[in-house]
Amino acid sequence: MPNKHRGEIEAEIGGVxxxxxxxxxALAELxxxxxxxxxxxxxxxxxxxxxxxxxLTRIIAAGLRGAGEAVSDDAVAAMAVDGGAQGYVRIAAExxxxxxGDGGA
Length: 105
Hints:
Shape: globular
Helix content: 40-55%
Largest sheet: 2 strands, antiparallel
Strand order of the largest sheet: 1-2
Strand content: 5-15%
Order of helices and strands: EEHHHHH
């Protein structure tokens, strides 16, 4: 069971039920990937509602790595989710929301 108080979610990705969590290390990874100076800049980027498909891949992959999976961004990009593109958006939005609260979603 994922613990949302610890920022964990669960989602079916690539036909497998997986846990995702944006640990401090995963957030640092995303700061680097997005060129964000700090967590405030990162949440602003997430909150603007204009994420690319590559951004969704990075967020989901970082969440999987934060939960202990050794997976690359490219491997995640090749995984299917129910709902197609909207499914990826839902997973990333839920992960960001539990990490930062409603203000970051």
